[in-house]
Amino acid sequence: MTSRHLVPILGFAAYSGTGKTTLIEALLPKLTEAGLRIGMLKHAHHNFDVDMPGKDSYRLRKAGASQMLISSRNRYALMTETPQEESEFHYLLTRFDQQQLDVILVEGCKNIAFPKIELHREEVGKPWLYPNDDNIIAIAADSQVDDTQLPQLDINDLEAIKQFVLDFVARKGEAEKQSTGSSCCDILSPAFLSVVQGQEKILSLVNTVSETEACPMQQSYTRVLAQDIISPVNVPQYTNSAMDGFAIRGDDLKCEHYQVVAEVLAGHAYEQEVLKGQAVKIMTGAPMPLGADTVVMREQATENGDKVTFNGVCIKVGQNVRQAGEDLAIGSDVFTQGCRIESAEMGMLASLGFASAPVYRKLKVALFSTGDEVQAPGSEQKPNTIYDSNRFAIMGLLEKLGCEIIDFGILEDNEQVMIDAIEQASQQADVVITSGGVSVGDADYVKLALDKLGKIDFWRINMRPGRPLAFGQINDKPFFGLPGNPVAVMVSFINFVEPALRKMQGETNWQPLKVNAIATEDLRSRQGRTEFSRGVYQLDSAGRLTVRTTGKQGSGILRSMSEANCLIEISPAVDTVKVGECVTIIPLQGRI
Ligand code: AMP
Ligand code: MG
């Protein structure tokens, strides 16, 4: 479990200029003298290289070793390249051999939630961190503050800091001993999953439909190719002019006056050979006449009756000509199986002469809402009801993915009605999706019904919004029981249902787009859970990608989803993101 570590973790938080490294450097000999075996984790903001250009390890690493372990009599060092993204804090901690350590001290990583001592010097002139950071457990400073209960140490009294660290390690060791046996918390219960665990579990349990069909190009948008596509033709089919201009021979560039012998438009051809001293007036896309291999653009030509001159123009043999098969040669790979057909793919398939595409059959998805309080739109609102929004939001999401929707409407809170309807849905559809009725404390018949129907697990995902999720199989068809709250429904769909549907549709190599943006407001989360806030990203005046939230983030406020153009994803290891810091965003364009 990533959140459990064998040894205590203690950090030092401070603004740069406070002398963090100098202090820790002076502290370490005192701690090792007292018997502590210390691991250090230091976060560097900038790129760094631990070995020098020219060293063997450096050369081998640069030559392509993604992990480089160098060892000698006195030490070894493992350098691991992480070109995609920086490793997660908890993962990094697992890299230590914790059996050999009593404590891991951390310098940096100030957004990550774990206990820290704040270092503060008045002359640095920076604000205090502790008022906004619950992870600070003590202060070491050169001045006193009176608005806090935190232990205060003198930053210049290394003995006192040493003692604090020793006490901290001893206290943690004691707590650890007491908790072993009753071994930790519900995080280990199988019903409690991280977002990634939930995604992986679901993906491992759904399969691509096996049936395929030929789909007319006009209807192929969002369909998924069931076969590789090989080009049956050359694109372009024939060598042609890339410009409006004059086609001449490459061995005849120096002629004073060329005789214009013909004019060819696209779709036509000059059937004779172009001879020396001759030029053919040619339009973009028209086939190059025999003998000619070079085009001089019209803007560089001086026409005089049936003569043309290119005085002073620098002409290169072969210029402004598109060769047959230059874009795609006959027999070359165009698309691979599992590629989703969107506008460009439609155009390209058509350009190769395909009137239809070999695709997987459409996925049929049955859809329900549940709850006695849920009322269909279109009739006058009854007391104590809400209009059904989930079914329609999900319809839109399914539409985007090109699914065929079977709408089963709203199910009343009645066990037998549920059982019958879901049973029937699973016969007709490839996937069944419901919303509502899966959170703790919900009317039991929803769960009873699902229990009777097949193997359904009720999960609690460590995320917000969207903690409850039911997933399982009914008549071998995947079943998703989404939460009831409208935002939670959409966020759960995006995270769990969409990847599964894409796999079932046959799409391969799909990954949700994630990019980094700079937060323009403080974002709070909670350690141990993934937070998906609704965000609006935009480029600021300096051209940097920034993001803010849409405001109130209640999971019933569907408007936040409508105003958002991204989800802001705060990983479980992070508990606050401060203004100016980077955060992961998931753009929503094309997905909702
Ligand atoms: P539940 O998980 O069934 O307790 O639902 C959680 C919340 O979501 C409740 O406030 C429900 O009223 C609401 N809810 C459930 N289904 C829908 C729906 N189809 N449309 C809008 N809100 C819903
Ligand atoms: Mg309900």
Automatic annotation (TrEMBL):
<comment type="pathway">
    <text>Cofactor biosynthesis; molybdopterin biosynthesis.</text>
</comment>
<protein>
    <recommendedName>
        <fullName>Molybdopterin molybdenumtransferase</fullName>
        <ecNumber>2.10.1.1</ecNumber>
    </recommendedName>
</protein>
<dbReference type="InterPro" id="IPR004435">
    <property type="entry name" value="MobB_dom"/>
</dbReference>
<keyword id="KW-0460">Magnesium</keyword>
<dbReference type="GO" id="GO:0061599">
    <property type="term" value="F:molybdopterin molybdotransferase activity"/>
</dbReference>
<keyword id="KW-0808">Transferase</keyword>
<dbReference type="Pfam" id="PF00994">
    <property type="entry name" value="MoCF_biosynth"/>
</dbReference>
<dbReference type="GO" id="GO:0005525">
    <property type="term" value="F:GTP binding"/>
</dbReference>
<feature type="domain" description="MoaB/Mog">
    <location>
        <begin position="366"/>
        <end position="503"/>
    </location>
</feature>
<dbReference type="InterPro" id="IPR036135">
    <property type="entry name" value="MoeA_linker/N_sf"/>
</dbReference>
<comment type="similarity">
    <text>Belongs to the MoeA family.</text>
</comment>
<dbReference type="InterPro" id="IPR036688">
    <property type="entry name" value="MoeA_C_domain_IV_sf"/>
</dbReference>
<keyword id="KW-0500">Molybdenum</keyword>
<dbReference type="InterPro" id="IPR005110">
    <property type="entry name" value="MoeA_linker/N"/>
</dbReference>
<dbReference type="InterPro" id="IPR038987">
    <property type="entry name" value="MoeA-like"/>
</dbReference>
<dbReference type="GO" id="GO:0005829">
    <property type="term" value="C:cytosol"/>
</dbReference>
<dbReference type="Pfam" id="PF03453">
    <property type="entry name" value="MoeA_N"/>
</dbReference>
<dbReference type="InterPro" id="IPR036425">
    <property type="entry name" value="MoaB/Mog-like_dom_sf"/>
</dbReference>
<dbReference type="InterPro" id="IPR008284">
    <property type="entry name" value="MoCF_biosynth_CS"/>
</dbReference>
<keyword id="KW-0501">Molybdenum cofactor biosynthesis</keyword>
<dbReference type="InterPro" id="IPR012182">
    <property type="entry name" value="MobB_MoeA"/>
</dbReference>
<dbReference type="Pfam" id="PF03454">
    <property type="entry name" value="MoeA_C"/>
</dbReference>
<dbReference type="InterPro" id="IPR027417">
    <property type="entry name" value="P-loop_NTPase"/>
</dbReference>
<dbReference type="InterPro" id="IPR005111">
    <property type="entry name" value="MoeA_C_domain_IV"/>
</dbReference>
<dbReference type="GO" id="GO:0006777">
    <property type="term" value="P:Mo-molybdopterin cofactor biosynthetic process"/>
</dbReference>
<dbReference type="Pfam" id="PF03205">
    <property type="entry name" value="MobB"/>
</dbReference>
<keyword id="KW-0479">Metal-binding</keyword>
<dbReference type="GO" id="GO:0046872">
    <property type="term" value="F:metal ion binding"/>
</dbReference>
<comment type="function">
    <text>Catalyzes the insertion of molybdate into adenylated molybdopterin with the concomitant release of AMP.</text>
</comment>
<dbReference type="InterPro" id="IPR001453">
    <property type="entry name" value="MoaB/Mog_dom"/>
</dbReference>
